[in-house]
Amino acid sequence: MDLLSVYVDDHLAGAAAGRARFARAAKAQRGTRYGEALSRLHEEVAQDRRSLQRIARSLGVQQRRSLQVAARVGEAAGALKPNGRLVRRSPLRLVVELEVLTLGVLGKAAGWRSLLEVARTDARLDARELQELLARAERQAAELEQLRRDAVEEVLVP
User: Fold this and answer.
1) How far apart are CA 40 and CA 48, in angstroms?
2) 55 close to 125: Cβ distance less than 8 angstroms
3) Residue 119: pLDDT above 70?
């Protein structure tokens, strides 16, 4: 497997874990002021993952299922942290989830930037599509940052 294939496959695994994390956060926040935004972002992240899968196919990337399973298991294990509560969901959980989601989106944006660099010499990649995906990731990160700030204000600021 060439280095570009490994790189894209690693991002596919991250995208699978990220989509699952967004789904979990959206479900947990259903009915709150955060739920609608997280549900919409979850849909966008799922679309981004499908875009990356299409890009991977165009590059001839052979997806390693074991890597995707490991990423999903790691994501699920990370969701088990009780944040000081064993029975009920801690209010701190929202802040931590938004931070994790932001990190995932920032990683996705970095991936789009790297692929944009590759697109300068690789005709299999559509630079315009990658620019659009990057712009969306940057917007998602900004929106998540505002949600995080709001949650910090609600949860941590006296």
Assistant:
1) 12
2) yes
3) yes
3-state secondary structure of 80: coil
Could you give the C-alpha distances from 42 to 23, 96, 125, in angstroms and in order?
A: 6, 17, 25
Can you tell me the mean pLDDT for 6-30? 96
CB atoms within 10 A of CB 52: 22
Q: Which two tokens stand for residue 134?
A: 């990057």
Taking alpha carbons only, the member of 51, 42, 44, 52 closest to residue 12 is 52
Fold assignment, 3-155 = Ferritin (1.20.1260)
Which amino acid, residue 19? Answer: R
Question: What pTM value is reported for the model?
Answer: 0.85
Reply yes or no on whether the pLDDT at 6 is more than 90: yes
At residue 136's C-alpha, the angle toward residues 95 and 106, to 5°, is: 45
- Tokens 């949600």 sit on residue: 147
What is the distance between the terminal CA atoms of the chain, rounded to a whole angstrom? 53
